[in-house]
Amino acid sequence: MKHATTPLITLFLISLMTSLLSNKPVWAETIREPAYAGSFYPAEPDELIHIIESLTQKAKQSAVKIPAAKTLKALIVPHAGYIYSGLTAAHAGHVLTEGQFLKVILMGPDHRVGFSHIALSSADAFKTPLGSIRIHGDAKKLRKNSNLFKSVPLSDRHEHSLEVVLPFLQYYLKDFKFIPMVMGPGDIDQYTGAIESVVDDQTLLVASSDLSHYLPYPEAVTTDKDTIDMIIRLDTTAFANKHHCACGKIPILILMKMARKHGWQPILIHYSNSGDTAGTRDKVVGYAAIAFYGDRPMKNKRDSNQHFSKEQGQLLVKLARQTIYKELGQDVQGSESLETALRSKEFQERRATFVTLNKSGQLRGCIGSLLGREPIVEGVRHNAINAAFHDPRFRPLSEEELDQIEIEISILSDPKPLEYHDGDDLIAKLRVNVDGVILRKGSASATFLPQVWKQLPNPKDFLSHLCRKAGLHADAWQKTRPEILTYQVEYFEEE
To answer: Strand, helix or coil at 266?
Structure first.
């Protein structure tokens, strides 16, 4: 047996060394190959580019006016064969330009498999005749941090709602990474909160959906007009309760909820159905392209929390670690140079701070202040000691745990009261992944830093857990109208 396996081991080692010397990976990447090239759209690159260019030129004849001084946030586009829905999809060419977005979150409905969560591919890239599109690193984070997202290889192989849209995005945006989401039934609020956690100013949200299916032409036009009106009005209740109005109902609802929350304005940029393009009119499928516009990002606004650099944040993290080491009687190297660096005037500002300790991804201590009563450096020192040794939820940190601890520093803005009418209004006004929240009712109070949204992306769950932390009933945020204050943070994780 030994002599039989030795050649195999030798061949493997030769292969490994060859790969290392040639700077190529030992294991090949996983590429999701196109499944519908040659049926829904052309398989030859030149032919595919030609049809997209032709449809885009034709779409210019019915271009609509878009809002001035606004930024594109999201799109709804159809996903049928290009001879049917391609003209409507090509209207995206009026609102998309090369390099406009670095990340696309592409959401489509599950047509083929059946599951009650979001299928999020574990592939490294999706391939179309126009080339490969790499999957953004946030996809892996979502699968790791939330059980809402799971890899479903069968959906990868057979779902068309994402694949059919990708060539248009490639043609218009050119270079971008994307997060592919195929959606089954689930809690829309949870879906929305989790997706918001990976949205930034360089992200485009795209909902892939057709409208009504197989109605006679006049009935389809009436039904689709009603559906589009609901979307434009952001009437999530009416849209959610309307049956057979859109196959991508869940992705569209997510966009509508985000639009209501962030003040985005939907604009219909084109409508058609298969009876207008390449089909008969006895049974048609409806298509709409709708763009959502919002305010431009405020790069210089203080609320954006871009006050301290990454390097300055790491100095504060280092200060926290050295403080804990000293408290345990450990020798500390480089403390004098650190003290010199921390004499900068920025670190002498009186700002509220929190120090958070994590161990193996679990909270190990978190103490801080909500009011800036002392300089930042002093706050970090005090809170580092308290988080390590005086958090009543945990036993004091031991020397053996030092190398297992990850430290996070948060610098808070001044809390501001949030005016709201009822529970629904409160949820609509809270900004997921942006706002830290202070909840007060009588003598009871508690706070969650914005980072807690990563574990509790659904605003209802976030508020219910915050109420429990304050010693109140979980539904107190709905029934007793507590005082709510919000703040924002700059936070720095230990590198």
So the answer is: strand
Query: Do 164 and 79 form a contact (C-beta atoms < 8 A)?
Result: yes
Residues 360, 272 within the same domain: no
Which 8-state DSSP code applies to residue 397?
Answer: P
- Residue 216's Cα: distance from chain center in Å? 39
* CA gap 48, 58 in Å, rounded: 16
* 35 domain-assigned: yes
DSSP-assigned letter for residue 39:
T
* Interaxial angle between packed helices 249-262 and 188-196, expressed in degrees from 0 to 180 and rounded to the nearest 10: 60
For 458, the token pair is 């659904």
State how far the Cα of 164 lies from the Cα of 125, in Å rounded to an integer: 15
Q: Judge contact between 303 and 124, C-beta under 8 A.
A: no
Asked if residue 86 lies in contact with residue 154, where contact means CB atoms within 8 angstroms, the answer is no
**What integer best gives the mean pLDDT of the chain?**
89
pLDDT surpassing 50 at residue 353? yes
340 with 224, same domain: the answer is no
For 400, the token pair is 């053996």
Q: Could you tell me which of 383, 358, 378, 357 has the C-alpha nearest to residue 368?
A: 383
Q: Are 218 and 281 in contact (CB under 8 A)?
A: no
* Count of domains for the chain: 3
| Cα within 13 Å of Cα(262), Cβ side | 30
| Digit-coded pLDDT (tens) for 171-228 | 999 999 999 999 999 999 899 989 998 998 899 999 999 999 999 999 999 999 999 9
Contact 427, 395 (CB under 8 A): no
Check if the beta carbon of residue 206 is closer than 8 Å to that of residue 74.
yes
Q: Which amino acid is at 70?
A: K
C-alpha closest to that of 139 among 182, 178, 183, 190: 178
In angstroms, the CA 325 to CA 248 distance is 54
CA distance 85 to 47: 17
